[in-house]
Design goal:
This protein is α/β, with parallel strands linked by helices and 242 residues long. It has helices at 20-31, 43-48, 91-97, 100-110, 133-142, 185-206, 212-222, 237-240; strands at residues 2-8, 37-41, 57-61, 117-121, 151-155, 180-184, 227-231. It is built from 8 helices and 7 strands.
């Protein structure tokens, strides 16, 4: 069996094209899937959907202040990223995105469903799906039949490509998609430790932080044997090809 891990935390950025209610509507498609799930969420949001059919879902109260890297926020004095969407790509957004391995590790430690496989799935991933809801649910159910010893990670650009085409510290790199990553609890535990080390290194040396997928690329380059990547795009293939 596999435990799906996800989160939805508000007040992270200032986007106006997808509000809290829209994210909840997207996320309900994931919640409805009757598979083991651990979802970290603001307490007030948990309260707002307490009567919603939770279908094998354990909600963990979690606030922005609880993010692991929030305690290092004051050290990030030179936050600079090249983005066309400054309202989305805020420092708090980077702190949240880089918390994905931490959420996975917390779910592994709790292990409420006694599974050996875990998969991170973005809460609002349904917005990428081009097929009907029934097909999306099929993708999620099929994750239960997948088992990987290594870190199984979605990739938009082959990470073995030898040339880094942009500055890894300031520009988003799409070697990894970011929305889906999973594998055995053993490999994900190592993954979370490596990511934590790399994030702290970047904060210390650059006084900044960037997208989690850039951090993952740096970790990959130093630990290729830990990963099992698969090619996809930001559409159905991100779940279908897992």
């Amino acid at each position: 069996m596999t435990t799906i891990v996800s989160c939805f935390i508000t007040n992270i950025n200032n986007i106006n094209y997808r509000d809290t209610n829209k994210y909840l509507e997207l996320g309900k498609n994931l919640i409805e899937c009757d598979v083991p799930k651990v979802i970290f969420m603001n307490q007030y949001l948990i309260d707002s959907i307490k009567d919603y059919n939770k279908n094998n879902t354990i909600f963990i109260p979690f606030e922005k202040e609880d993010l692991y890297y929030n305690k290092y926020k004051n050290e990030i004095t030179n936050f600079v990223v090249n983005t066309n969407n400054k309202d989305k790509d805020t420092l708090d957004y980077m702190l949240l995105q880089n918390n994905k391995p931490e959420f996975l590790q917390k779910a592994i430690e709790l292990n409420p469903f006694h599974t050996s496989q875990y998969v991170w799935v973005d809460f609002g991933i349904f917005h990428m799906i081009q097929n009907p809801k029934e097909k999306f649910m099929e993708y999620i159910y099929n994750l239960q039949n997948k088992s990987y010893e290594k870190v199984r990670i979605s990739s938009c650009v082959n990470p073995l490509y030898n040339e880094v085409y942009k500055d890894v510290y300031t520009n988003v790199l799409w070697y990894f998609a970011g929305s889906v990553v999973g594998g055995s609890y053993q490999s994900l535990t190592i993954f979370s430790e490596k990511c934590r080390e790399k994030v702290k290194e970047v904060i210390q040396e650059k006084k900044s932080l960037m997208w989690e997928i850039n951090i993952w690329y740096l970790v990959f380059m130093e630990n290729k044997e830990l990963f099992d990547f698969y090619m996809c795009d930001h559409n159905d293939s991100i779940l279908e090809n897992y």
